[in-house]
Design goal:
Number of domains: 8
Distance between the termini: 165 Å
Family: Belongs to the type I cytokine receptor family. Type 2 subfamily.
Subcellular location: Cell membrane
Strand content: 35-45%
Domain Fibronectin type-III: 217-318, 322-418, 514-609
Helix content: 10-25%
Strand order of the largest sheet: 2-9-8-4-5
Number of strands: 52
Largest sheet: 5 strands, mixed
Pfam families: fn3, Lep_receptor_Ig
Number of helices: 11
Keywords: Cell membrane, Glycoprotein, Immunoglobulin domain, Membrane, Receptor, Repeat, Signal, Transmembrane, Transmembrane helix
Length: 866
C-alpha cells in the first residue's frame, strides 16, 4: 500500500511538471474577420507529445467566457479539435480553447473574431470646381462595415476608358489639385469602395465642370447714399479673378434693416467680362441703417459663391418725428430757495426710426416768466437742474442733421403746491413670466399714467426706470427686468396735460426666498411668571421678501418647546404663564412666503418674586416702621408724661431725712386758709420737705413727728435760693388738680418752704378720701396766732438762721423742680392751741410702716377739691 502512495505522488508531480507544456497550442485561423451572420470554423492543435490522459478529447471551447455546447465540437485526431459557430452576430468576440483535466480547466489558446459587412456602393457623387484651384468630389458611403474601407476616386474621359487621374482616401471626400484639375467638360467620375470582405464600384458619372463651378465671394467696394435723395443706397462690388470665362453671371444683393431685422434680396445680371458690379437699393426707410452683403454664381452652375463681408450704411436723414419719453425726479428741497430736479429721457422707438440722434436740447423757464428761458445741450439722456421755488416749464427735444423732434414738456410745480390724490388703490401680482401692476382711479377721464419702479435701497435718482401707459389701468413687465429677492418701490403717477398728479405707492418682490438671517431676541423687564421679548427688524437687504409674521419659540430648561405667532408689525411680545425661577431659551423666527429663518437663541431666567409679591411684603413692613417712628416721636414729645406714668419717682424711705421728723396729729388749718389766697412757686432744688401720710387702714397707728426737734432742720435754708426764687400764682381748677393726683403715689413732697414753714405733718387719711397735706407756717404763724392772715407771707419769709447750711435730700433733688401749693379757702382754721397741743412725739420711723401709702405735694391740689 505504501508503494501505491508513492506511485500516486510521482504521477501528481509529473502532471504538475508537464502542465506548462500541455498549454502550448495553436488556433487556426488567428483573428478571423467574417461577414456578420455567417458561420465560423476554428481548430485547436496541441503542439507537444501528450500522455494518454491528455488529448484532443479533453479540449473544451468557450465564447466570451461561456461554454460552447459539445455537439459543436469535432475531434479530428488526438491533437486537433475543431469548433463550428453558426450565425455569428457579434461585432467582436473572444473564442478560447481549454484543456479539462482532473476537474480543472487549463487555458490553452484564444483568438478574437470580428464580423462586419461588405462595402456598399457609394452614392450621390457630387463635385465642386474652384477654377484653377481644386476639384473636390464627395459621396455617401452607405452603412458602416465595421472594417477599414478604402475609397478610390477615378477621373476618366468619356471618350476613352483610360483613367486620367485617381485619388485614394479612407473618407468620403477626395480632391484633385492643380495641375491635375484641368478644365474640361469631357470628364466622368467613378468611386470604388473596398474592405477585407470585398469591394464595390460605381458607374462613371459625367459631370461638366462649368455646372459645378463655385466662385470665391465677391468684394463690396462701397455702399453710399446720394445727398438730397432719400430712401436710396448705391452698392458697388468687385468680382473674383479666378472664374471660368463665361458670358452670364448672376449676383444677389442682400440688404437688412438694422432696426427691424428685415432682410430683402435683389438679383443683378453681369457680363463675365466685367469685373465690377453695381446696384441701386431703393424704397428704403429714411434715416435708417442698413447692412449689405453680395454673392454670385455662374448662370449654369448649381453652386453660389459664399457671401461677401457685410457693409453698413444709413439712408438720408430727416428730423426726428417722435417725442422723447421725458421723466423727472424732484429732490426734497434743502433750501427754501433752491431744489434739484433730475431729468431723464429716452428716444421714442418710432417705426420707421427718424435717424441718428446727435444730441438733446433742454429748455426751461419759470411758469410766469416765459422770457427768462434757459437752454442746455446734452449728448447724454439725463441732466440735473437747480431751480428756485417757482413753478417751471421744462421741454426736451432730440436733434440730428436734419432738424429737431417735437418738444416733450413737463411742468415742475412749486414746493407749496399740493396735488390731489387721483389713484385710490394699487395692487401688484406676479406670474411665472411677468410682474403685473393694476390700479383704481377716482378720475375716469385720466387716460395717461407713468409707472416708476426702482430698488428700495437705490439712492441714485438716475437709477430709476419708468414707462408711459395710455388708455389702461394695468401695466405688465417681464420678470427678467427685476432682480430676484430685491424689494422694488413702484409708483403710479396720473398725468393731465403737462402736469403730474400725486403718485400712489406700493412695493413688490418679483421673486422671494426665506430671509438670510433671523431676528436677534432680547428680553426686557423680567417677572415671576412673564417676560417681555423684544427684537429688531431684519435689515432690508436680508429680508428677501415681505415679512408675514414672527414666531417666538421658547423652551424651559428640560421642558417642552412652546411657540407664539404675531403679526409682522409687532416687535415685542409678553410671554405669560411662565414658571418662576426657571431658565428659558427663546428664539425668534421671521417668515415670508418662501419660508422662515430662526435667529440666535437667547437665555433668561424668571424671578422668584414679582412686583406684587414685593408690594404685599413691603406694605406691612412700611406700616410697622411708620408705627415705630410714630411711637418714638410720641415718646420723645411725651417722655415726661410716660415717665411719670410708667416709672414714677419713688424715693427710698430709708435714705430720706423725713423719717426722723415729728408727725403731728393735726395741723393748724389756719395756714391752709392763708394759702388759699395765693400760690407760690418755689425752686424745688432749694427746699426738700417730706411729709408722711398714712392711709386709712393705718389711722390707728398714726405717727407724730416731733416738731420742736426738727425746727432747726426746717430752718436750714439756702439763703441764695430763697432770695432768688420766683413766685408764681397758679390758678388751677379743682378738676385739673384732681387729675394730677395719683392714688398710687405713696407720699407728697413739698420742696418750697421758708424757714418758718419747714414743718411737716402727716395727716391720717380717712376712708378713701384723698389725703390733704398742708405745709403750715409752723415756725412763724403758729407762734403768733393773733396776727392777721395778710401778714402770713411776710412772716413765712423770715429766716431764723441764714448762716446754717441747708439740708438737701440727694434723692429728692432730682424730683420735680417746682411745686404748686393750692390751699382751699373752705378749709377750717386751726387755733394756736392746736399747734401747741401737738407736743406728743412719735417714736422714730419704723420699717414696718414703709408699706403705708404716701402722697406727694404734687397732688396737693387734689386735697383742695375734697
Amino acid at each position: 500500500m505504501f508503494s501505491n502512495l508513492i506511485w500516486m505522488f510521482v504521477l501528481l508531480c509529473s502532471s504538475v511538471a508537464d502542465e506548462n507544456s500541455i498549454r502550448d497550442a495553436d488556433i487556426f485561423p488567428s483573428s478571423p474577420e467574417i461577414e456578420r451572420g455567417s458561420s465560423v470554423e476554428l481548430s485547436c492543435v496541441l503542439r507537444k507529445n501528450y500522455m494518454p490522459q491528455r488529448n484532443a478529447s479533453h479540449i473544451i471551447w468557450k465564447l466570451n467566457d461561456e461554454l460552447i455546447a459539445p455537439e459543436n465540437y469535432n475531434i479530428v485526431n488526438e491533437t486537433v479539435s475543431n469548433i463550428t459557430i453558426h450565425n455569428f452576430t457579434y461585432s467582436t468576440a473572444y473564442v478560447e480553447c481549454l484543456m479539462k483535466y482532473l476537474d480543472k480547466e487549463l487555458p490553452l489558446v484564444d483568438t478574437e473574431v470580428k464580423s462586419g459587412f461588405r462595402p456598399d456602393m457609394p452614392e450621390n457623387i457630387s463635385c465642386i470646381y474652384f477654377y484653377d484651384v481644386n476639384l473636390t468630389c464627395t459621396w455617401n458611403a452607405g452603412r458602416e462595415t465595421s472594417f477599414t474601407t478604402n475609397y478610390t476616386l477615378y477621373r476618366k474621359l468619356m471618350s476613352s476608358p483610360d483613367t486620367v487621374g485617381s485619388c485614394l482616401t479612407t473618407t468620403e471626400s477626395c480632391s484633385f489639385f492643380y495641375p491635375d484639375n484641368v478644365y474640361s467638360n469631357d470628364f466622368c467620375f467613378q468611386v470604388e469602395a473596398k474592405n477585407v470582405l470585398g469591394s464595390s464600384l460605381t458607374e462613371c458619372a459625367p459631370i461638366p465642370l462649368q455646372k459645378i463651378e463655385k466662385f470665391a465671394p465677391p468684394e463690396i467696394l462701397s455702399v453710399k447714399k446720394i445727398p438730397g435723395i432719400k430712401q436710396l443706397l448705391v452698392v458697388t462690388w468687385k468680382m473674383p479673378e479666378k472664374i471660368i470665362p463665361l458670358k452670364h453671371i448672376i449676383c444677389q444683393v442682400q440688404y437688412r434693416n438694422l432696426y427691424s431685422n428685415f432682410t430683402e434680396f435683389v438679383n443683378v445680371s453681369l457680363n463675365s467680362k466685367k469685373s465690377i458690379g453695381s446696384c441701386n437699393l431703393t424704397g428704403l426707410w429714411d434715416s435708417t441703417d442698413y447692412s449689405v452683403a453680395i454673392r454670385c454664381v455662374n448662370n449654369e452652375s448649381a453652386f453660389w459663391s459664399g457671401w461677401s463681408g457685410e457693409k453698413n450704411e444709413s439712408t438720408e436723414e430727416k428730423a426726428p418725428s417722435g417725442k422723447v419719453d421725458l421723466w423727472r425726479v424732484i429732490e426734497s428741497s434743502r433750501s427754501s430757495r433752491n431744489r434739484s430736479v433730475h431729468l431723464m429721457w429716452k428716444p421714442l422707438k418710432s417705426f420707421p426710426p427718424s435717424g441718428r440722434i446727435l444730441g438733446y436740447k433742454i429748455r426751461y423757464f419759470p411758469e410766469n416768466k416765459a422770457a427768462h428761458k434757459s437752454t442746455n445741450n446734452s449728448t447724454e439722456q439725463k441732466m440735473t437742474l437747480l431751480l428756485n421755488e417757482e413753478a417751471h416749464i421744462i421741454s426736451v427735444t432730440a436733434y440730428n442733421s436734419a432738424g429737431e423732434s417735437p418738444e416733450a414738456i413737463l411742468r415742475i410745480p412749486s414746493p407749496d403746491e399740493k396735488s390731489s390724490q387721483m389713484i385710490e388703490k394699487v395692487v401688484t401680482s406676479t406670474t411665472n413670466e411677468e410682474v403685473v401692476v393694476q390700479w383704481i382711479t377716482s378720475e375716469p377721464e385720466t387716460t395717461k399714467y407713468v409707472v416708476e419702479w426702482y430698488e428700495e435701497l437705490e439712492m441714485d435718482p438716475f437709477g430709476r426706470s419708468w414707462q408711459y401707459v395710455s388708455n389702461s389701468t394695468k401695466w405688465k413687465n417681464n420678470k427678467k427686468n427685476f432682480k430676484p429677492f430685491i424689494c422694488y418701490n413702484i409708483l403710479v403717477y396720473p398725468l393731465y396735460g403737462s402736469n403730474v398728479a400725486a403718485p400712489s405707492y406700493t412695493q413688490i418682490y418679483a421673486e422671494e426666498k426665506k430671509p438670510s438671517e433671523g431676528p436677534v431676541a432680547d428680553t426686557g423687564i423680567l417677572g415671576k411668571n412673564e417676560v417681555t421679548v423684544k427684537w429688531n427688524e431684519i435689515s432690508k437687504a436680508k429680508r428677501n421678501g415681505f415679512i408675514t409674521n414672527y414666531t417666538i419659540f421658547y423652551k424651559p430648561e428640560d421642558g417642552k418647546e412652546l411657540n407664539e405667532t404675531v403679526n409682522s408689525d409687532v416687535l415685542q411680545y409678553r410671554l405669560k404663564s411662565l414658571q418662576a425661577n426657571t431658565q428659558y431659551t427663546v428664539q425668534i423666527m421671521a417668515s415670508n412666503k418662501a419660508g422662515g429663518t430662526i435667529g440666535e437663541p437667547k437665555t433668561f431666567k424668571t424671578l422668584k418674586l414679582d412686583k406684587e409679591d414685593i408690594f404685599f411684603i413691603a406694605i406691612p413692613v412700611e406700616i410697622s416702621i411708620l408705627c415705630l417712628i410714630g411711637l418714638w416721636i410720641t415718646c420723645v414729645l411725651k417722655k415726661h408724661a410716660f415717665k411719670k406714668v410708667c416709672w414714677p419717682d419713688i424715693p427710698n424711705p430709708e435714705e430720706s431725712l423725713a423719717v426722723e421728723w415729728p408727725l403731728a396729729s393735726s395741723v393748724n388749718n389756719s395756714f391752709l386758709k392763708r394759702m388759699s389766697s395765693q400760690t407760690k412757686t418755689v425752686d424745688f432744688e432749694e427746699i426738700n420737705v417730706l411729709e408722711y401720710c398714712f392711709p386709712e387702714e393705718s389711722q390707728e397707728g398714726s405717727l407724730l413727728i416731733n416738731y420742736e426737734n426738727h425746727v432747726s432742720e426746717c430752718t436750714d435754708f439756702n439763703t441764695k435760693g430763697i432770695t432768688n426764687r420766683d413766685e408764681k400764682i397758679l390758678h388751677n381748677e379743682e378738676n385739673e388738680a384732681a387729675k394730677s393726683f395719683s392714688p398710687s403715689m405713696p407720699y407728697i413732697i413739698t420742696d418750697q418752704f421758708t424757714t418758718s414753714q419747714m414743718h411737716s405733718a402727716l395727716i391720717p387719711v380717712k376712708e378713701v378720701q384723698p389725703i390733704e397735706v398742708v405745709a403750715n407756717d409752723l415756725c412763724g404763724s403758729q407762734q403768733n396766732p393773733t396776727k392777721n392772715e395778710e401778714n402770713d407771707d411776710e412772716e413765712g419769709l423770715r429766716l431764723e438762721d441764714f448762716s446754717k447750711k441747708p439740708l438737701f435730700n440727694p434723692y429728692l433733688k432730682n424730683s420735680v423742680k417746682t411745686r404748686e401749693f393750692l390751699v382751699s379757702e373752705s378749709m377750717p382754721e386751726h387755733s394756736t392751741d392746736e399747734c401747741k397741743s401737738q407736743s406728743g412725739v412719735l417714736p422714730p420711723f419704723q420699717p414696718s410702716v414703709l408699706g403705708q401709702s404716701y402722697v406727694t405735694v404734687d397732688m396737693f391740689s387734689l386735697a383742695k377739691g375734697q
